[in-house]
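Running this now, will post back.
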Amino acid sequence: MVGIKPSFMETTGLLLISLVLVMVILSFVVGNVIFYPRSESPYSPPSQSNLLGTDDLGDDVLTLIFRGSRVSLSIGIIGSLVSTLIGTVIGALSGFCGGSLDDILGWLTDLFIVIPALPLMIVLTAYLSPSFWNVVLVIGLLWWPTTARLVRARAWQLRSSTFVEGLIGIDASKIYIVFRHILPNVLGVVLARFVLSISHAILLEAGLSFIGLSDPTNPSWGTILHFAMTRGALLQGAWWTFVPPGIAISMTSLGFILLGMGLEQRYRIGPKSLEGKI
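Update: finished.
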C-alpha cells in the first residue's frame, strides 16, 4: 500500500486531527504564556481579553478547551489501544485455532456484544469511582468485541491460504503461526479499527464525563459540558461555555471517523490480500 495517494476522507480526517494535536501541543508547550488568568467576571462573553469568554468561576474557556484536549485525546487513544489489543488477540486466536477455543471465544464475544455497553460502563465507572485510569479501563475492557469479530473473519480466511497450509504441513506451532504470520497480515484491519475506536472512546468518555463520572480535577471536554449544564450556563445564556467543547468533541470524532473509514477502504479484504508474507 506504500505510495498510494491518501483519499479525500483520509486527508480531511488527518487535517482535523492535526488541529487537535496543535491544541494539545500548545497546552503543554506554551502554558500560561498565551492563556489568560482567572477573571473576576463570571460568564463574561467573548472579548479581546477572553476570546471564548469565561465560565462561572471566571476561568478562560479557551484555556479550558486547550487543556481539556489532553485528557479527551489521551483517554481516547489509550482506551482504544487497550480494546484493540484485546480484540486483536482474541480474534486471531479464535479465527486461526478454531475448534473448542473458537466456540468459547466466540461465545464470550457474543456475550459482550449483547450486553449494552454504555449502561454497563456507567455502572462500572460509578462503582470503581470516577478517575482517568478507571475510565480508560472500562472503555478498554468493554469495547473490543467488534475488533475481535473483524480480526477473526480475517484470520479465518488466512487460515485456508497457501502459505499457512504450508506452515501447518511442516508442523509449525499454532502460536508461532498466529503471532509471526497471522497478526502481521491483519495489521491493516487492526489499524483501521484502532483509529475508529478512538472516535468511539472520545464520545464515550464525553458521555461519562457529562453525567459527572470523571475526575473533576483533570477536566476533559465532557467535564466542561458537565459544569456548564450543572452551573446554570443555559439559564445565563452563556453559549460560549458549552458550544466550543461540543464542537471540539464533534470535530475530533469526525476526524478519526473519516481517517478510519479511509483506512478501511485502503485495507479492504480482497483475494489478493490473502496471500501474506511468509
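Confidence is low (pLDDT under 50) at residues 269-278. More later if anyone needs it.
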